[in-house]
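Loading example: each entry is read as two labelled lines plus one structure line.
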Amino acid sequence: QKEVEQDPGPLSVPEGAIVSLNCTYSNSAFQYFMWYRQYSRKGPELLMYTYSSGNKEDGRFTAQVDKSSKYISLFIRDSQPSDSATYLCALIISNFGNEKLTFGTGTRLTIIP
Amino acid sequence: DTAVSQTPKYLVTQMGNDKSIKCEQNLGHDTMYWYKQDSKKFLKIMFSYNNKELIINETVPNRFSPKSPDKAHLNLHINSLELGDSAVYFCASSQVLASGETYNEQFFGPGTRLTVL
C-alpha cells in the first residue's frame, strides 16, 4: 500500500463547476500538506500548503485537512479552463534539513469551456 | 531569470550508455533534490543534498550518482542506462529556514525527459 493514495482520474468538469480533489494517507507522522499543480510538460508548482486540520482558503482554492481521518482535499470554485492540469497532493514529515516530499499519484483535471 | 534550470530538456539514448543531466538554481537555496516521474505521473524523490552534502538517498540503484560541485548545482550521472530508466527527471531546490516551523517550498525545474531505447 502506498503511503499516499490519490484518485488518478482523469476528471472532466464544465467551466464554472466546483472541483473536489482528494488524497488519503497512512502515516500519521506527516505534518505538512501541500497541493502542487503541474501543467503538461512543466515542473510542479506549489499551489497551497497547510499544517493543521481545518480549511485554508486562497482565492478560488480551498485546502482542507482532516488529520483524524488522514484525509486531505482541494476544492476549486468557479473552475476555469486554465485550471486544467494535473494536481498532486504532497505530504512531508519535515525533519529539519531533511524534507522528503511524498507525492500522491496526481489527478488529471480538464475544465471544459 | 530562470529559477531552477535543467539541461538537456530531452535526452534520447541507447541502453547501456552513460549520460548526465545538469541542474542549476539561482535562488541562493542550500538544498537541492532529484525526483523521478514515471509514465503514470508518479513523482518520487531520489536524492537530496544540503550544502553539497548527501542527505536523502532513496534506495536508488548505484548506477545513479548525484554530484554537487557547489550549492547552486546538482548533477545526475547515470551509468549503464536501462529501459526502465525512461522517465522525466525533475530537479528542485529549497531553503531550510532556521525556525524549522514553516514548510520550505521546493521549486521545481522544467524536467528532463529521458528516453532509453
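The domain at 4-116 of chain B is CATH 2.60.40.10 (Immunoglobulin-like).
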